[in-house]
Amino acid sequence: MDEMVVSAHSDLMTVLTRPAPAERADSARHGVAFWLIAAVFLVSLAFSTVPAPLYPLYQRQDGFSSFTVTIVFAVYAIGVVISLLLAGHVSDWAGRRRVLLPALGLEIVAALLFLFWPALPGLIVARFLTGLGVGLITATATAYLLELHTAHRPAAGRARFEIVSAAANLGGLGTGTLVAGFLAQFAPAPLRTPYIVFLILLTLAVAAVAAAPETVRAPAVRPPYRPQRVRVDLVASMTAFTAFAVFGLFTSLAPGFVAGSLHHPSRLLAGAVSFVVFAAGAVAQTAARQRLGTGLVALAAGVVTVAAATQLTSLGLFLAGGALAGGGAGIMFKAAVRVVTSTAAAHQRGETLAGLFLVAYLGLVGPVLGLGVATRYVPATTAMLWFTGFLLALLGTITLLDRLVRR
Fold first, then answer.
1. Where are the domains of the chain?
2. Main subcellular localization, coarse class (predicted)?
């Protein structure tokens, strides 16, 4: 009799704790949406690096210098910074979908400008609009992925979110350069075909966002608008700044350096160089239990190797150094994101991530712009040595601050 009572009680508890069909369906919908938004994140970030392997073609077509390439790249990063500063936090109360949809619209307009206004002014405007779109997407999509992951697997840890968001972010940046380089090398109309392909992908991304469930409940009273508050940990912000400085190098001047100084004009190779860096960063982020110190050492070794490659004009050494630096930068950036997402309140998650990306994109534009200015007065190899010294100084400062904080 006692066994029957215990069995009945167990069956009753199973029924009571089993999710209702509606709850299971809602969880499954969030699970599908998680992968849809990850794909949207990847496509939108990939589009932002499409011009990287095409810059040598633009230079030959319009006759502008490496410094002009740096300006075009800086305009993109400025667009990202402005977008993050003015609207990076808006999705916390307006909703993730309401921010992602116009952001993708900006990227679609930029793709049309690349297609129909290929001159330097059109390139500048298109890159600026791309930056505005990416600034809206980065923090919003990262917060969206975390919320969809939590809704789908409320009892699970954040490992899946961290791996997928990192792969979508850095993997997307690398995929854009590789796809653009491949299409420019083997498809007709190298300055048009990559944008046509991504115009189609961005249109599909809009449909994916429209189908995804919203994860933010709009407040009863809309808060008054204010610009973004930068509220990030000092070590995390410096870490993100330094990591993106390395990424900026390989999406701006590196393809031209490979085509010019290293005498390898292949468009596919130009895209592959950037892809190697970002792919190494994405892969390194998936490794179990990386520490910030590991990233610091790998990045330091990588930039020293890249500097040596520029002096020796060695493509193999350049690629090896880029992969090592990219892996280190990936680990460092993941560490920064982990600090931010683990300490931010839910209603400030987008704002805090926007602050981190704001500092990161300042790292993307500042050092690379300085490098571009330096190439006007000294040889590229000398400027690269200066850039290496600057990065090593930043890495040393981060190491010191991290030790002080831990103590």
1. 29-211+228-406
2. membrane
Tokens of 357: 């990306």
C-alpha torsion angle, residues 334, 337, 339, 344 (rounded to 10): -160
CA distance 400 to 19: 49
Nearest to 281 by CA among 170, 159, 357, 356: 170
Class of domain 29-211+228-406: mainly alpha
Q: Torsion over CA of 56, 57, 58 and 60, rounded to 10 degrees?
A: 90
Q: Which helix (H) or strand (E) holds 345?
A: none
From the CB of residue 86, how many other CB atoms can be counted at a distance below 10 Å?
17
pLDDT tens, residue by residue, 205-229:
999 999 999 998 877 777 787 776 7
C-alpha closest to that of 354 among 147, 138, 100:
138
Which tokens belong to 58? 């633009």
Compute, in degrees rounded to 10, the torsion defined by CA atoms 182, 74, 65, 45: 0
Burial of 223 (0-12, 13-18, 19+ CB in 10 A): exposed
Express each pLDDT in 79-116 by its tens digit: 988 998 888 778 888 899 999 999 999 999 999 999 99
Q: Is 203 helix (H, G, I), strand (E, B) or coil?
A: helix
Question: Residue 242, Cβ neighbours under 10 Å: how many?
Answer: 28
Residue 22 has pLDDT above 60, yes or no: no
Q: CA Rg, the chain, in Å?
A: 22
Distance between CA 143 and CA 352 in Å, rounded? 10
Phi and psi, residue 223, nearest 5°: -70, 150
Q: How far is CA 172 from CA 36, 281, 292, in A?
A: 14, 11, 23
Q: Confirm if 246 and 368 have CB atoms less than 8 A apart.
A: no
